[in-house]
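Why do we bother with a discrete structure alphabet at all? Because it lets us treat a fold like text: something you can write down, compare, and reason about line by line. To make this less abstract, here is a complete entry for Class I SAM-dependent methyltransferase. Read it the way you would read a sentence in a foreign language you are learning: slowly, and without expecting to understand everything at once.
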Amino acid sequence: MPSTNAEIAQRLSGVHDEWMMTDAERSAVHSMLTTLKPQVAIEVGVYRAGSLAILAVHCQKVYALDIDPFCEATYASRFPNIEFITGPS
């Protein structure tokens, strides 16, 4: 059960820690990936890898671009089909 106003607002908004999207936006992304079946995708801005996780499931290869080396260090072992590119865009 959420205990703070921020936690309650987050739950009501449908935004999750790993995703910077609402449930409806996440559903739309999943639907597009399921329908289009892309072989390759580009993720610009990894942050907490929420959308990266679903791209990794639906695509053979994903290029993940982020300025923060933390992203590659943290998520590379979790997603073998993702190539991380670190640097400014």
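What the structure line is telling us, in plain words: Residues 5-86 form a domain with the Rossmann fold fold (CATH 3.40.50.150). The CA atoms of residues 2 and 58 lie 32 Å apart.
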